[in-house]
Design a protein that fits this description.
The longest helix has 38 residues. The chain has eleven helices and no strands. By secondary structure, the chain is mainly α. About 6% of the residues have low confidence.
């Protein structure tokens, strides 16, 4: 084979490789745009169908696909499939950022469905990988929602003064639950009403 033939083959290989890379990148972007559109339109069934397509499986890592699926199932209120996806994700090889993101998402879900054991497992992961503030907030949520604690009432009521909108909403919701735990319905309703007002103002 002559030198020109070798050069020609090399050039063709480069062109083909470049075209393949461009195709993959374009396909990734268009698929992601479709996923974003479906999520924006709250068409979660379409989002799940797209995530299940062979081309999407080829383009995205299993973690990324499952994480997006989890968000869709959570939005649909599909507890069975949300649990199934979390259980599929936990054994995956993940970096620290991915582990923490999954732990936070799974923790919130397990608290909501009142799965105390699973929530505690995720809390431990958050306490290992998350910031001190995140670990403290998660521990408070666990104790208040799943253990009937009301130990943070005075501290949280003191923190309400000057709290930013998102933090004020969180504190009011936790205070309402704690007052319910104490069977103080009057203060529970006061904090819940304040939480609803904060949320209403945030949506304006």
């Amino acid at each position: 084979m002559g030198i020109m033939d070798m050069k020609t083959i090399g050039m063709i290989s480069l062109i083909v490789s470049g075209a393949a890379l461009i195709f993959v990148e374009v396909k990734k972007r268009t698929t992601f745009a479709r996923l974003e559109h479906n999520l924006g339109e709250r068409d979660f069934d379409a989002c799940l169908a797209l995530l299940d397509q062979p081309i999407t499986k080829a383009l995205y890592s299993e973690y990324n696909r499952l994480y997006m699926s989890l968000n869709a199932y959570l939005a649909l209120g599909d507890n069975e499939n949300s649990t199934r996806v979390i259980e599929r994700m936990l054994p995956l090889r993940m970096n620290k950022k991915q582990e923490l993101a999954l732990a936070i998402r799974a923790f919130s879900f397990y608290v909501e469905v009142e799965d105390k054991k699973a929530a505690h497992d995720m809390l431990k992961r958050i306490e290992v990988s998350g910031s001190e503030a995140l670990a403290k907030g998660s521990r408070e949520t666990y104790d208040i929602f799943l253990c009937g604690s009301s130990a943070c009432v005075d501290e949280m009521e003191g923190a309400l003064k000057g709290a930013r909108q998102a933090e004020e909403l969180r504190l009011c919701q936790l205070l309402a639950i704690q007052c319910e735990n104490r069977e103080d319905e009057v203060r529970a309703k006061e904090h819940q009403a304040r939480a609803e007002k904060v949320l209403e103002d945030a949506l304006k």
